[in-house]
Amino acid sequence: MSSDDYCPRFSFEITEEQKQRADKLLDTYGLRKAIFGIILDDLLDLIESGGGMAIGAILSTKIKPSKMLKSMKKAEELTDG
User: Fold this and answer.
1) Quick one: residue 14, left, alpha or beta (phi over 0 = left, psi -120 to 50 = alpha)?
2) Which of 15, 35, 50, 74 allows an S-S link to 54, with CB 3.0 to 4.6 Å?
3) Region of 7 on the Ramachandran plot (φ > 0 left; ψ -120 to 50 alpha; else beta)
4) Are 33 and 66 in contact (CB under 8 A)?
5) SS (H, E, C) the chain
6) Which of 26, 56, 50 is nearest to 70 (CA)?
7) Residue 71 and residue 74: Cα distance in Å, rounded?
8) pLDDT in the model for residue 2
9) 81 pLDDT exceeds 60?
10) Quick check: 1 pLDDT over 80?
């Protein structure tokens, strides 16, 4: 593989339940990449501006990412979620 073919990837383990839900709900080709690209940009912006406090808030599970990330917050508002 040449350096022109390099495509960075972000990889982490998920549970079997998460895989089954993702397979069911995000089955359209390219949808996962599009959605998670937007979410990742929002998350990185939040961490860049809030640093360790933002990471701590998310990891503590006291606040849902949908309340912190603007793309997810907007989606929740539009779907009355």
Assistant:
1) beta
2) 50
3) beta
4) no
5) CCHHHCCCCCCCCCCHHHHHHHHHHCCCCCHHHHHHHHHHHHHHHHHHHHHHHHHHHHHCCCCCHHHHCHHHHHHHHHCCC
6) 50
7) 5
8) 67
9) no
10) no
Q: What residue type is 64 in one-letter code?
A: K
Contacts of 66 (CB under 8 A, 6+ apart): 72, 73, 75, 76, 81
CA–CA separation, 81 vs 75, rounded Å? 8
CA 15, 18, 23, 27 torsion: positive or negative?
negative
Residue type, 60: S
Indicate whether 27 pLDDT > 80: yes
- Side-chain half-sphere of 45: how many Cα atoms within 13 Å? 11
Amino acid at 16: E
What ranges do the domains of the chain cover?
15-78
